[in-house]
Amino acid sequence: MSEQEPQELLEAHAIGTDPVRLEGADKVRGRAPYAYEHPMDDPLFLFPVQAQIARGRVSELDVAAAEKVDGVVHVLTHLNAPPLEDTSDRELAILRDDRVGFRGQYLGAVLAETPEAAREAAGLVEVRYEAEDHDADFRGRPGREEPEDAEDDVDTGDVEAALGQAEVVHEATYTTPMEHNNPMEPHTTTALWEGGTLTLWMSTQGVHPARRKLAPVLGLEPEQVRIISPHVGGGFGSKGVPHADLVLAALAAFAAPGRPVKYAVSRQQMFSITGYRAPTVQHVRLGARADGTLTALSFDAVAMSSRTKDFPEQAAKPARMMYAAPHRRIRQRVVQLDVPVPSWMRAPGDAPGMVGLEIAMDELAVSCGLDPIELRARNDPRTDPDTGLPFNRRRLVDCLREGAERFGWADRDPVPRSRREGGWLVGVGVASATYPANRQPGSDARVAFTGGRYEVEIGAADLGTGTWTTLTQVAADALGVPTDQVRVRIGDTDLPRATVAGGSTGLASWSAAIIDAARTFRDHHGTDPSPGSQAEGTAGKNPASERLALHSFGAHFAQVRVHEATGEVRLDRMLGVFSAGRIVNPRTARSQLIGGITMGVGMALHEKSELDPRFGHVVNHDLAEYHVPVNADIPQIEVSWLHEEDPAAGPLGARGIGEIGIVGSAAAIANATYHATGVRVRDLPLLGDAFLPG
Ligand code: MOS
Question: How far apart are the CA of 241 and the centre of ligand 1, in A?
Fold first, then answer.
C-alpha cells in the first residue's frame, strides 16, 4: 500500500448506513418543485427563434407577424436585446450581432402570456439569411488543431523504435459517436428581474459556479444574482456550466421587469443548445513482449469541436495513467467545425477514451494468447506513469480479480464464437474503469444549533444523486448526533458557497467543508451548545494531491448475446466492482453506479446523435429517435465495491462515484461481442450490421 496523507478520518456511525432519500416522499407527492414549477404569479413564457443555417449571417429579421399574435408581449432579437458585458465566452454571447455560427443558435425569443402563443409567434418570425459555406463533417475532414485547453503531448522514450522491435504489435482505430445528455428534466429556468436583482430558479449542478459565470456576462455584480435550485432532475454534466438558454432567459427577464419569465428548453432544442459529448477518433498502437508486457503505447485522439467555442473531449486522458509502458506518445487534437458547442457528458474524456484503450487491450490479449485480466495485471504500474507520483490506492487488479470471481469468469472458453444458444452467440468481456478522485477547493459550510436541532447550510446540488441524504449523514457523524437532529439546506446562492457537482467531486468537496464547520462548532460550543450557536467551515485544496496520484478504479464484466441471423446485440448481465474509498450510503451509491453502467450500455448499444453534415443539425433530435436504454435493455446489473477508506481523499475517506460507473462499461460490452462472435467491431454504437458477413 502506498503512503497515506495523515488526515484524520471521520468516525462513522450514520456513514455506511442506507437511509432512503430524505426528499423522496416530497418528490412523489409533488412537493419538491423543479425550476419550471415554482409557483409564480402572472408568469410570461419564452419560446426561442433558432438559426436554420449552419454558417453565415442574418440579412433580414421581420417580427411584425409575431408581434400581432394575441398574448405576445415582446419579441427579442439582436436588434433590441439588452447589451451583454463580458462576451469572451462565445457560447454565452448571444444576440450580439447578425452572425450565425451553427444551426440551432439562438436568434431571438418571443415572450408571451401563454406557452402556446410564444411558440406560435416564434414560428412567425421571418428570418432571411446570407448563408456561407459551412463545414460540419467531422469524419470527412483531415484538419487537426491543437485544442486551446487540453493536456500537453506526451513523448517519452522512442515509440517508433519500440514498436519496430516489439514482439507483438496491435494497431487499430476506434471511434465513438456524438452523444447527447438526456436528463428527464430538461434545462429549465424561471427568471425574475426586479428591484435590481435577478432571481433565477434554475436547474443546475452548482448555484454558485453558475452565478460566477453568468453575472459578468450580464453586467451584474454577483450579489445582484440569486440562484435557487433545490431539486434537479438529472444533469450528467449538461447542467454543470451555464449554457445559452440561461442568458436568453435572463435577457428576456430584463425586457419584462417585475414579471417572472419561464423557459423550459424543449427536448429538441437540447440537441443544439445544452452541449453534447463530441465524437472522437482514437488511433491506438500498442507494442508488447510475447508475455504481454507493454513496451510502447501510442494514443492519438481527435475530437470534434466547435468554431464558436473550443471544447476538447479529452479522450487521450486515461491513456496517460492506465498502464505502464516505457515508450509513450499521447496526443489530443480537435477539429473545429460549424457545429453546436460540445460540453460535459458523464466522465468527459475518460468515458470515450477508455473505449479505444480497453478494446485495444482486449485485442492485444488475444494477440498474446493471454487472459485479458492477466494482461492488465502484468501492466499495472506501481507509480502514475503520467505524473510519476505514487498512486493513493491503485486497486485495479483487486477489482478485476474480485469481479472475475463473482462473475464466474473462469468458466469462459477463451475461444471466441464457442457458445451458441439457439440462434444466439453468447460471449463475455471485461474492461477496466478509472476516474480521478479530485476534491475542489472553495466550499464553505455553516452549522447552527437552533435548540431542537442542527441546521447545516451549504450551496451544494442534488441532481437526483442523493446529496440531501448523504450530506445529512456526513453532518450527523461530524457532529456526533443522530441524523434526525440534522437539517441540511442546499441549492441556493444565499447559502455558503459551494463548488459544482461535477467531475465526481461533489460529496468529497462539500463534506470537507461540513466536517470542518462541525469540528469548529464542537471546539467552540462543546456538546451542549446554547441555541443560536454557530460555526463556519471551509474546504481548501486537498494537500494529498501534491504527493499522490488520486484515482478510483474498477472492473466491468459483461455477458452479451448476438443473434447469428440479425446481428442484434442483447445484454444478458453486467457486473461492476469498484474501488472508490468509503461508501457513504450504499443505497444511493449503488443507484449511482448502476446509473453509470446503464449509460455505458447506451454508449455501447444505443446512443448516437446523427449530425447531418449537409445542414449541420442532429437529425434524431428527440427521444423517439435518439435511443437510450429502456427497462427491456437492462436485464441485470450488479455492482459492488471493495471495503476501504481512503484518508488521502480527505476526512470523509470517500472518493467520487458519479462517473466511474460509465467508464469502461461500453468497452466491456464491445469485448463481449467479440468473444461471442469472433467479429471485432471498433465503432460505437455496436449496431447489428457490423456482426453480419459482407
Ligand atoms: Mo459531470 S460530466 O462531471 O458534470
Answer: 9
